[in-house]
From TrEMBL, chain A:
GO biological process, one term: fatty acid beta-oxidation using acyl-CoA dehydrogenase
Alphabetically ordered keywords of this record: Electron transport, FAD, Flavoprotein, Transport
Family of the protein in this entry: Belongs to the ETF alpha-subunit/FixB family.
Cofactor: FAD
Binding residues annotated for FAD, in chain numbering: 207, 263-270, 284
UniProt-recorded name of the protein: Electron transfer flavoprotein subunit alpha/FixB family protein
Species whose genome carries this gene: Salinimicrobium profundisediminis
Cited InterPro entries: DHS-like_NAD/FAD-binding_dom (IPR029035), ETF_a/b_N (IPR014730), ETF_a/FixB (IPR001308), ETF_asu_C (IPR014731), Rossmann-like_a/b/a_fold (IPR014729)
Coiled coil: none
Length: 322, 275
């Protein structure tokens, strides 16, 4: 009956989202009067999962599952849910989790609520609050199925410590040939860069920066803050920056702790995609730019002067604070 | 003589090698799922005690993610031969959106005549259409920008037992083989798989500048293209959107002087506690 949580790892190490979904699952388990079971893939140990309320870790160790494979992972999670008799399954909203959740929902005939931002309002029936209309609204969704899948938005619930003794158990799901009908030929991923999905801080540039040659100062600021870089849609459409940096309603969503918008006007489609960020800072020379209505802090002025200065000051601040 | 001739032609057609060639040469059948959504600039309001999306004054468009996919489908049609059908699950109000897809170049449209109640319900309708039509490739947006469910493409794949690639930003098909590029967090990966295939797609599969604005000829032709209305299969929903809420209005912004950036750092550190 335990709440099952899919805990993501990379090269054997749990990602922060794993602890976030575990924290949330613990909250749900408390409401249901049960415990949390995690399923991990090729992670060495239970790591810190116990710290966030996990009582049991089902460890899948399989060479064939080294690379993420939505169908096979979904199949394994399904078997774990059946073994544990889990009625609620919690996953993150990473690209991988969003990929496997609908497949899992079909396999388990489970209702699936994506982009969930808070603990259920009630468990019988299970009702959750989620974002809709790309953050322009919230929507309360009731799941009527026996088994339910909750996709928890990044940074919505946070980490909650709840020291628990996590027991570890090897788990070998039986996977079929059909689970491996898609093969990864190559992966192209910058190993040393913070991704928009994982970043606590995102520094984003818009058309106000005039051209790709001016992105050095954006990158410096991002590096100083340990942040990911992002951009508005026209910037990626013009090829100044890669499409993978395009954020907004039709690009990637941003749910960072801090979002810094430089030379971005704040069009409705841009704001929709970044508004889940906790704190927003805008730097723009036009005091009438709509972004000033949507941000927490603002500096009116020329980005070309402000950004390098801010970076210098942040370096001093970091040096003084460490 | 004639009988002999026919029987040898018949034998010839049943030869496995010929069937194999025929399959390779056969036009790919593509189905593109079209979600009918409020234009991205729409003000989002609710009616009936915040239980319904208020469509008053709202312009509806093809879901942007679907439009990228539709454009990729047109390229398949033009470059290597394919038929492209579009499908929407919805009431008569979605027909102008389907007509727009026809004006862009789809061959025919199917409307499953029922409100799009929830993800699984829509997926089951599309799965039925997909199975009846024997499609090789089903293209859907990675999510629709209204409810942002992000589940229909994967569910369709799961229901019909097709392969599935989500956040697909590149796709090539040769014969029965597909090479797809999937956007992952922080990069991308290249995948190989077979048809039948379902993709959940987005910008990147084609670029913004590749999108097509229907011209007069396209619009005229679209009026004559078939738009078939089919009745839904009877199936249960799994979820229900019971009410909506708008985010709380944002508090006032704190402006910091450009000459006083220390204050900004102070606020971010001590007040917002984000650095
Ligand atoms: C269907 C659709 C979907 C869309 N989806 C997205 C999306 O997902 N994401 C997105 O970003 N956009 C999206 N857009 C585009 C959106 O409407 C805006 O056009 C876009 O966000 C504007 O980008 P920008 O702010 O970089 O450029 P602009 O609007 O041109 O703004 C540039 C800003 O820079 C400021 N500036 C200029 N010089 C300086 C300087 N020296 N110092 C400081 N500031 C300066 C200007 O005052 C201005 O405010 C979408 C549009 C449509 C129609």
């Amino acid at each position: 009956m335990s709440v099952l949580v899919y805990t993501e790892s990379e090269e054997g190490q749990f990602k922060k989202t794993a602890f976030e979904v575990a924290s949330y699952a613990k909250g749900v388990a408390d409401m249901l009067g049960t415990e949390v079971t995690a399923i991990s893939f090729n992670a060495q140990s239970a790591g810190d999962l116990g710290k966030y309320g996990v009582s049991k870790v089902l460890k899948v160790n399989d060479e064939k599952l080294q690379k993420f494979n939505a169908k096979a992972y979904a199949d394994a999670i399904k078997q774990a849910a059946e073994k544990e008799g889990s009625k609620v399954i919690v996953v993150s909203q990473s690209a991988n989790a969003k990929y496997l959740a609908p497949l899992l929902a079909v396999q388990l005939e489970a209702g699936y609520a994506s982009n969930v931002v808070a603990l259920p309002e009630g468990t019988d029936p299970l009702q959750v609050k989620r974002t809709a209309f790309t953050n322009k609204a919230f929507n309360f969704t009731k799941l009527s199925t026996d088994v339910k899948i909750i996709g928890l938005s990044k940074n919505a619930f946070g980490l909650k410590e709840n020291q628990t003794d996590a027991t570890e158990e090897d788990f070998s799901p039986s996977l079929s040939e059909g689970d491996f009908a898609i093969n990864v030929v190559s992966v192209d991923k910058a190993a040393d860069k913070v991704t928009i999905a994982d970043a606590e801080i995102v520094v984003s540039g818009g058309r106000g920066l005039k051209g790709p040659e001016n992105w050095g100062m954006v990158e410096d600021l991002a590096e100083t803050l340990g942040a990911a870089t992002a951009c508005s849609k026209p910037v990626s459409d013009m090829g100044w920056r890669p499409h993978s940096e395009h954020v907004g309603q039709t690009g990637k969503p941003v749910a960072a702790n801090l979002y810094i918008a430089i030379g971005i006007s704040g069009a409705i489609q841009h704001l929709a995609g970044v508004s889940a960020s906790k704190t927003k800072v805008v730097i723009n020379n036009d005091p009438e730019a709509p972004f000033f209505k949507a941000a927490d802090y603002g500096v009116v002025g020329d980005a070309f002067e402000i950004v390098p200065k801010l970076t210098e000051k942040l370096k001093e601040f970091k040096a003084g604070n460490s | 003589m004639h009988a002999q001739y026919f029987s040898s032609v018949f034998m010839y057609l049943r030869n496995p090698f010929i069937i194999f060639i025929y399959k390779i040469l056969r036009y790919m059948k593509i189905l593109v799922c079209i979600s009918h959504v409020p234009d991205t600039t729409s003000k989002i309001n609710f009616s009936e005690g915040d239980t319904k999306f208020d469509t008053a004054g709202v312009q509806f468009v093809i879901n942007p993610n679907d439009e990228f996919g539709l454009t990729r489908a047109m390229w398949f049609k033009e470059k290597q031969g394919a038929t492209v059908d579009v499908v929407n699950v919805g009431g008569t109000e979605t027909e102008p959106t389907l007509r727009k897809a026809l004006a862009i170049g789809a061959d025919s449209a199917i409307r499953v005549n029922t409100p799009a109640t929830d993800g699984i319900y829509v997926a089951k309708q599309i799965a039925k259409v997909a199975q009846d039509g024997g499609y090789d490739l089903i293209i859907a947006g990675r999510e629709s920008i209204d409810y942002n469910g992000g589940m229909v493409p994967g569910m369709v794949a799961g229901l019909i037992g097709a392969n599935f690639v989500n956040t697909c930003i590149g796709l090539e098909v040769e014969g029965n083989e597909a090479t797809a590029i999937r956007e992952i967090d922080g990069g991308k990966e290249t995948l190989k798989t077979n048809l039948p295939l379902v993709i959940g797609t987005q910008k990147g599969i084609v670029q913004e500048s590749d999108l097509r604005i229907p011209n007069m000829r396209g619009i005229m032709q679209a009026r004559k293209k078939p738009l078939n209305v089919v009745e839904p299969v009877d199936t249960a929903t799994h979820s229900e959107a019971v009410k909506f809420e708008k985010p709380k209005p944002k508090g006032d912004i704190k402006l910091v002087d450009a000459d006083n950036l220390d204050e900004l750092i102070n606020l971010l550190h001590n007040e917002a506690k984000v650095i």
